[in-house]
Amino acid sequence: MPQYDTFEHDVLIVGAGGAGLRAAIGAVEKGCSVCVVTKSLLGKAHTVMAEGGAAAALGNFDNQDGWKVHFRDTMRGGKFLNNWRTVQIFAMEAPERILELERYGAVFDRTPEGLISQRAFGGHRYRRLAHVGDRTGLELIRTLQDKAVSVGIDVQMEVTLTRLLTDGGRVTGAVGYRREDGSIVVFRAKAVVLCSGGWGRMFRFTSNSWESTGDGAVMAYEAGAELQDMEMVQFHPTGMIWPPGVRGVLVTEGVRGDGGVLKNGAGERFMFNHVPEFYRAETAETPEEALRWVNDKVNNRRPPELLPRDVVARAIYKEVEAGRGSEHGGAYLDVSHMGAEYIKRKLPSMYDQFLHLGDVDITKQPMEVYPTVHYTMGGVPAEPESCATSLPGLYAAGECACGLHGANRLGGNSLTDLLVFGKRAGEAAGDFAIAEGPGSISEAEIQEEVETLMKPLGGSGGENPYQIHAELQEQMQSGAMIARTEEGLRQTLDKIHELQRRAEDIRVPGDTKFNPGWHAARDVKNMLVSSEIIVLSALERKESRGAQWRLDYPNEDAYWARNNVIAKKIDGKVSISHREVPEPPSELKELLQD
Amino acid sequence: MSKITLSVYRGDANGGEMKTYTVDTFPGMVVLDAIHQIQAEQDGTLACRWNCKAAKCGSCSAEVNGMPKLMCKTRVDDYPADQPIVVHPLRTFPIVKDLVADVSWNFEVSKSIPILKLADDGSAEPLRMQQVDVDRIQEFRKCIECFLCQTVCHVLRDGDRKDIFFGPRQMVRLASLEMHPLDVLDRRPMLRETAGVGICNITKCCTEVCPEHIHITDNAIIPLKERVADTYFDPVQKVLRWVGGRK
Ligand SMILES: Cc1cc2nc3c(=O)[nH]c(=O)nc-3n(C[C@H](O)[C@H](O)[C@H](O)COP(=O)(O)OP(=O)(O)OC[C@H]3O[C@@H](n4cnc5c(N)ncnc54)[C@H](O)[C@@H]3O)c2cc1C
Ligand code: SF4
Ligand code: SF4
Ligand code: FES
User: Fold this and answer.
1) What's the gap in Å between A18 CA and the centre of ligand 1?
2) What's the pTM value of the predicted model, to 2 decimals?
3) What is the Cα gyration radius of chain B?
4) What residue numbers bound the domain in which A268 lies?
5) Based on the domain organization, do A353 and A378 belong to the same domain?
6) pLDDT tens-digit series, residues A377-396
7) Same domain, A9 and A89
8) Closest ligand to the CA of B36
9) Inter-chain contact A115–B126, Cβ cutoff 8 Å?
């Protein structure tokens, strides 16, 4: 048994994205000692990549906006699978959290009156996204990072946690390793907040970084927590497709919010042919109206390019399947008509990204795009008020949590989610820590995890973790991507089982010293677990709704309109069940009508 | 399919050597792609950092043919195909392993810089600031903490004077706070003393390597130097500014 360091804190926070950092501030303000653990350096979490903005009904441009409209838009976007109370708290508290961030030091773009400027985005009725050019995530994470450090948190960078520790069902800490030297580290805490982000890396084309392997959700699942809505994986309609090295990298929705139009290989602006009845009344009817909307949002309706992400992603998919794809099998996204100066001011990092990485000057030429795996709506269900999970002592916030987004997340709602529920989770965990005091950690659990970790460094196995990961990505891409069928999902499940068997025989060269192959060996196991749950959940939901599109069940179903899919580990296996979606009170239901 | 060779540093704080690898290229390939290909197909123990692969996070910093670069933004076809591309970790910081440098000093220094302080602390009122007044600090806030400027600055690199100079990255951070229209703290004593703004001799090497195109020297350091000089040598100006209510 190797030696290990043990750290003790009131609250342990898994993850230093926006959610984790905001939670840390919340817990410190409760008077707790806090440790934030992150796989990367501070400030590099996924949150840094967010571009478009953070949604909050500040009403700085459109004073008709308010929390009720934001509530309505989020519920409609999520096809009513959301937890209404979570959405209500979110919509009500969003403006406060954004204004607070500004007071921490964030410098948003301004309106002529000197207030925070707001950008139009898909599925949001009014201009609602507080933003900083196309680097809003950087502003958010840097502000929170500086604030959290200034209030006095401990940070453990480049540490991967791999297992939650429990004491009779209560979560009391976690164990993992330092990436730098492979040494084992144990954290003992009175409460643990999961802020570990999402999981897109099991798909071949994704906007997600290496970190998005779903560790948090899998750790919670392994410790006995429920997972919910795992079939709901968001495909962002516009990822880069060419050149191959950047395939999957995100093209912000801001491009469409700022006037960009989608065209197929035949040069046709196809989104007008894909407007669902549900959204017809709020969508522009003609290209002329759509163009007028860019400058006059009050008297015109939004362009069809700004329909919710699931709708746009499917439309691009259908155009390509019908043989009307672009040169490299996607669609064209064109903003060049907006003028070079406007583009460089509004979308500077997109301009740079395409010029440098894609040899495309977006002020003159169209971009080529195709849906890319982007966000995971599912995760660990969290109580609306406190973000408590089904395990005592464990809280969840941010992308790894579930409840806010339902079947489809609206752009801009995630960054605000991090602030609203990061704060609530950190504070609730702080309260719990103070009330409950310390629990104990189990040497046996630590021992077991250390064995799992060290296994790939010895033994006679011949499997390579990169190979297994590549095969998983290939299979998930073909069998569990945007258009799903029973047959494709079954094949994918078989393949996952095969890979799970093979993963037992992973053998990596080298030792524990900053050894990416060894890190990958543990990561791929988590991805296999979360992939299995995604596929089983997708098989269960025999309908199409939001991000889940079943070719064999193309319509919405009345039963599934009222039920979430739940996954839980029972007797070592994934057990799937259903749970009724909580029913909103009548005064909130009324808001959803129009 | 054509091939390229890379000469990559392999080793740790105790020393190491350059090792040569040959990889297949594809259109648009960047140096980070090549490193990933080596990891997946030839040697999984090769260590490097990365996150976004889109020049947004500042993780993948290294020295490519001697120039500090983001590996995810550096195209392999920018270099002659008949010579190896040399990839080395940042030289100004201790090496952890292979392409991973120990940049923790930067985070330590960062801790000592006080964040924004408003006159009406505790209020929840929206702030009012005009776009023209925040344009210049928004430039500084583009910083992705890649530390390329830190690695190239001769004060830190050749002189190893981390004890007297915070480096260009922190000058940019200090500038973003000092020039915030509503900030009420005075960081000039810090700038003059521990941060060492006077040590910079305006060679502009930092500005040249900044992937975010921040005009580090002209827009951040020189104005900070002026503020410090004014305060300490020109009491009249200081009083005038104070009376005028502007920092
Ligand atoms: C390219 C891109 C653009 C986006 N644009 C927008 C946008 O404009 N608006 C919007 O609202 N949303 C946007 N999103 C979504 C949004 O950025 C993310 O959902 C959000 O940032 C997630 O934040 P988080 O705090 O939950 O997790 P993350 O920021 O993903 O952070 C997760 C943290 O957990 C840590 N972690 C994970 N596993 C472990 C482990 N095992 N041990 C220790 N630490 C661990 C990681 O190291 C990291 O620090 C975008 C996403 C992408 C990819
Ligand atoms: S201009 Fe100043 S900070 Fe920049 S590299 Fe030269 S000495 Fe260093
Ligand atoms: S100022 Fe530029 S070079 Fe320096 S750390 Fe920031 S982004 Fe990198
Ligand atoms: S990987 Fe993020 S900057 Fe290169």
Assistant:
1) 7
2) 0.95
3) 21
4) 236-373
5) no
6) 999 999 999 999 999 999 99
7) yes
8) 4
9) yes
